[in-house]
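Note to self: keep these together.
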Amino acid sequence: REIIKYKLWAKEQIERNPPKKKVIKEYKNGDKLVVWDKEYLLFISYRPKQSSSAKINSNQISLFISSEIPESRQKAHISTLLSRVIAKKRLPELKNKIKELNEQHFKQNVNKIFFKNNKSKWGSCSVGGNINISTRLLFAPNDILEYICVHELAHLIEFNHSDKFWLLVEKAMPNYKEKEAWLKQNGESIAF
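Structure:
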């Protein structure tokens, strides 16, 4: 009886709040892509090879896409390649930002810092001091990225979302609730 009751409740919840269909951006040869303060011109070519690759030269991103990938998967493949190549280029800036915020507010040991093509979280922090930041934040304003960095750095002290944790965040960024509101309002529109 309890299982049936739970199934009915779950079905009702899904009907009330249906899962949102993920929209993958479509990129074409010649498109312009603005990431933080930099504008890139996209060059996309399809080649009969097993793998795809990407590179950045100055303000041009060249994508060499395998024509053997089914057309139904090409948009997602291009988005993933763009995410990787831009994240690699911008990673030194992220490391500097986290180092600066850590020295200013937390003074904790940070191990490794990564950009991750994560669509479900803005960031994460491991017990080992590794900090991951979603590549989606490459499209966010600088203060929003800083908020996520502060949030993850605070986890180096409080590995939870307790009142102590939020006090640490607030001390480092008194207006953090504005940043959370911005993410709730605009978060779905920032993605590769």
